[in-house]
Amino acid sequence: MAAAFGRYHTAVVRGIPDSVRYDALIQAEQRDYVDVEKARQEHAAYVQALRDLGLKIVELPGAEDLPDCPFVEDCAVVCNGTALVTRPGHSSRRGEVHAVKKVLEEDLGLEVVHMVEDEATMDGGDVLFTGKEFFVGLSNRTNEAGARILAETFPDYSVTTVPIARGLHLKCFCTMAAPDVMAVGEGPEAQRAWQEIRARGDHKYAVLNIPDDGAANCMFVNGTIMHCAADEFPKSAKTFTSARLEYPRVQVPNKELAKVDGSLTCLSLLI
Ligand SMILES: NC(=O)NCCC[C@H](N)C(=O)O
Ligand SMILES: [Zn+2]
């Protein structure tokens, strides 16, 4: 199973609605307005990077009444042919799941489980799959009931919860950079999460400490590491370069959607 980690054939992505500029959810107190045209250009570069890595792209149209809809990762957890369609933690995002569920079930033929329980919530951004087990951030968006349903849906893997006191999602600052290698931000919340993972997980991982928390959100896709662009995170990009990872790397831009807390993993569901 470990050898197949990070192998995908299809990516589901979703277009960016104009409403992302004024209405997308933000953590910051003050809004830094997204330049929608630039965001679409960056999104296109991201999608092209996935295509170049051999993925077939399924693009859902953006929906104006769903300003956060490009962040499809939050709508489902896909593993070994099964998709758990989530119940997103913020009520403004609940409507996003219908189009995602439809495409996963009808077009891609996945076995779909839908999290419908009233008290359960989950954003896929809190779900870190290592190829061997799951870690689930317990955040403002994801709760114990959500984590329990994940464990029931994927009984072959252990699920360990990680409390997230500050920040949006677990994967905002902690992701898999390569098989058995976790990229972890150097900020206090990221390091706390890593200590939990290290102490309570079932498996051992090497750590790659990344100077900027936001740049610790990277992706390992078909043998290549996709990470932040050097002009956005110069120090962190350098860390990826000098880390002597045994895999090729590509840099992808994400300046605009980062203003509404979007990171690289958020923008696709990989199958
Ligand atoms: N998986 C992710 O990290 N998703 C980012 C979601 C950003 C969106 N503005 C939100 O607050 O829900
Ligand atoms: Zn995130």
UniProtKB/TrEMBL annotation:
Binding of substrate, residues: 25, 68, 73-74, 93, 141, 260
SUPFAM superfamilies: Pentein
GO MF terms, alphabetically ordered: amino acid binding; dimethylargininase activity
Pfam name, any one: DDAH_eukar
Keywords: Hydrolase
Family annotation (InterPro entries): DDAH-like
GO biological process, one term: arginine metabolic process
Active site: 169, 266
Stored Gene3D superfamilies: L-arginine/glycine Amidinotransferase, Chain A (3.75.10.10)
Family: Belongs to the DDAH family.
The name this protein goes by in its record: N(G),N(G)-dimethylarginine dimethylaminohydrolase 1-like
Gene name linked to the record: LOC109484580
